Amino acid sequence: MSVTDERLQLPFERPNILELAPLYEVLRRQAPVTPVTTPAGDPAWLVTRFDDVRALLGDKRLGRSHPEPERASRITTAAVQDGPTGSYATEAADHARMRRLLTPAFSAKRMRLLTDHVQDLVDGYLDRLVAERAAAPGGVVDLHAGLAFPLPVAVICRLLGVPEDDREHFRALSERMASYTSGDDAHRARAEFSGYMTGLAEGKRAEPGEDVISDLVRAQSDDEGFDYNEMVRLCVGLLFAGHETTVNRIGLGTLFLLTRPDQWQGLTADPAGRVNATVEEIMRLGAPGDLGLLRYAHTDLDVDGVTVHRGDALILSINAANRDRSAYADAETFDPDRAERAHLGFGHGAHFCIGASLARTELRIVFATLARRLPGLRLAKDIDDLEVRTTITGGVTELPVTW
Ligand code: HEM
């Protein structure tokens, strides 16, 4: 495999994000800042080395908005473009406000409250899967539909303060909003979601609780009026940022472990002792596929000898960075005992994932509980027959298992 002067077209023509490693190795060595064409046909730079990606994520000369918004490359779907637009100054001010409003939601106290709830949810999903398996042909059940998919949205409901009875309605709305194939319906769903959240906020005003909507009501009670649009935007942002990402880490993590019996046995022998390191290794190797974090240059800058001009789009590949041999020994090996523990799976710098502690809590509870309760777990389908998408978040759509 070699890199030519031609622009590479994203997404790469590879069916499976787990197969991108050799291409990344060539890029990191020969063209660590390489010209690519985005799925929408616009030019961008793909950055693949760990040190570059980390440095650029912390570099204030880059921003998530284009210095001249009308000229921005459109990297992929609407969900990714949903972020702030406008000048860098507006972006920075909006961003600081967003982080401030969401800070109480991820405090240590809230995380403790959520931990018990996550454990109850995981145990409930596993109880249902165990019952389902007894009647299922061949004893095969789908861990994606029965655990990985429903868990993160149920947790976000608790985080926001959506009552349990409304969860199903909320989940259906969020799925419709996220559907890239049904533009009109996605808009209708967004309007319905707004209406629902507005009603919820009215209720929290009268009876606040330990949740995001109540935080927002409290934070804004001194202002002239409650900004319902901002609340809806923040909640949609949390859903997009925290749902599929977590679903896919559960799915990929399960694949990593069940296709490496020694790792799975190690975890079942000592779930409490091994789960944290196992989750960090899942986060390292299970990073999103061939797309990455989008940034725009706000001044001309030099990256590895390549001149990047003001307004250029950069795609910072977390997946490539997390597999960089100069940052990790045996970078492609799944090894929770490795010495280098830092990774870029939750980003870095000003936009570092605000939900990282919650995501870690979910992943640790999922894998520790699976190892404890279902030590004989195994895939019921060959891994080559499973579809592993190359989407921005990357993941599986089914996980047939038995035990
Ligand atoms: C930001 C990954 C779970 C909320 C980010 C970023 C990454 C990331 C890479 C940085 C984006 C950038 O720099 O442009 C993940 C992964 C998750 C996860 C892999 C699951 C394993 C969650 C959860 C929530 C959440 C559960 C909340 C419910 C956010 C928010 C941001 C963010 C609000 C934007 C932060 C900012 O712009 O300052 N996440 N995330 N994430 N994440 Fe997560």
Automatic annotation (TrEMBL):
Q: Which PROSITE patterns match?
A: CYTOCHROME_P450
Q: What cofactor is needed?
A: heme
- Alphabetized UniProt keyword annotations: Heme, Iron, Metal-binding, Monooxygenase, Oxidoreductase
Pfam families (alphabetical): p450
Keyword GTP-binding listed? The answer is no
Gene3D superfamilies registered for this protein in UniProt: Cytochrome P450
Alphabetized CDD domains for the sequence: Cyp158A-like
Give the family this protein belongs to, as stated in its UniProt record.
Belongs to the cytochrome P450 family.
Q: What is this protein called?
A: Cytochrome P450
Q: What organism does the UniProt record list as the source? A: Nocardiopsis sediminis
